[in-house]
Amino acid sequence: MNINGVPYRTIWRSSDGKAVEVIDQTRLPHEFVTVRLENVADVANAIRVMQVRGAPLIGVTAAYGVALAMQRCATDIELTQVCQLLLATRPTAVNLRWALVRMQEKLSGVAESDRNVQAWLEAESIADEDVVINQAIGQHGLALIRAVWSNKLEVVNILTHCNAGWLATVDQGTALAPVYAAHDAGIPVHVWVDETRPRNQGASLTAWELQQHGVPYTLIVDNVGGHLMQHGQVDMVIVGTDRTAANGDVCNKVGTYLKALAAFDNNVPFYVSLPTPTIDWQINDGVKDIPIELRDGDEVTYIHGRTREGELVAVSIAPEGSAVGNYAFDVTPARLVTGLITERGVCAATKHGLAGLYS
User: Fold this and answer.
1) Where is this site: Transition state stabilizer (predicted)?
2) Which of 194, 242, 249, 330 is catalytic?
3) Domains in the chain and their CATH numbers?
4) Is 242 labeled as catalytic in the residue annotation?
5) Rounded to two decimals, what is the model's pTM?
6) I want to staple 40 with a disulfide (CB 3.0 to 4.6 A). Which of 69, 84, 173, 256 is the partner?
C-alpha cells in the first residue's frame, strides 16, 4: 500500500536488524505514526492494545515477537514461555496460535546457537507468504465482483464490516483485496463502510486506507446496512474473519452476524474472505466452541477523536459506573454465508466445500 506515495507494509524488520517496526493503528486516521518494537514485551503490548490488529497481522507480529525473544535468549524454556505469553494476548484470532505453533515447531529442532537466525528467517517467510496469499484472495474475489459488474454494467456496491484490508494483514488485505483488485482492473466499485463500534475500525481504518488507494466509499453507522439492502443499494457483502470453523461457521467483528441476517433476508450475496491459517480444523461448531473475547468496557463508554480545534481527546458517552458488556466478536452460522473466498479458490461454507479445496 502506498501512503503519500511511499510503499509500506504494516510490519517490517528495522534497518538495524534488532527490532521490528509497525504502523500504530490506534493513532489512525488522524496521525500516521510508526512504532519500534524491541522485545517480546513490546510485541505483546502492541497486540493487546491493538496497535496491530487483524487476524493475519496478529499472527505475523507474534512470529516476529518470537524472533525478538530468540535474539536475547534462545533456550527451550524461553521459547515455550514466549509462545505462552503471546498466545494469551488475544483469544479469538486463530492465526496467532497457528503462527506460534509454526515458529515453535521450526525452532525446536534447531540448535540454540542457530535459533536467532532461523527465527528471523521463519518470521519473514510467514510475512511474505501472507502477502502472496492475500493477492490470490484478491484475484478469486475479483472474479465474483466482475460477474456482478458484467450483469449490472454500473457501479458495484459492496458493503464491508470492520477492517479486513491492508491494515489487518501484512499487505493487500482479505475482504478488501478483491475490492482493490477490481478498482485497479478498472471496474467501478463503491464501498459502504460500517463505522464498526465500539473501536470504529471501519471509520478510522477502512475509510482511511480506501481513501489512500482512491476507492470511492461512503461511511455509514452500523445499523444502516439492512436499510440499504432493502432498497437494492448493496450488490454484495464481503467481510473478513478471525476464525473459521471446519463446518464453515465464521467468527468476525461483532455485528457481522446481523449483516449476514439482513443479507439473507434480502437475497444479497454474503462472502467471507480468509487465508488458510484462519481455518480452525479442530472446531466443528463455531457458535458453541469459538472463544469470544470480552474487552475493556472503556472502549464502549468512551469515544476517541479529534476536536474541531485539532486536539485528540477521549469523550465519555455513558453514565458513570454503567455496566458494560464489550463482546468483541460474534459468529455467523455457515448457512448464512454464500461462499468462502480463500487463496485456493471460492467454496461453499460447508465441510464438503472446504474439503474440495483442502484434502
Assistant:
1) 162
2) 242
3) 2-129 (1.20.120.420), 139-357 (3.40.50.10470)
4) yes
5) 0.95
6) 69
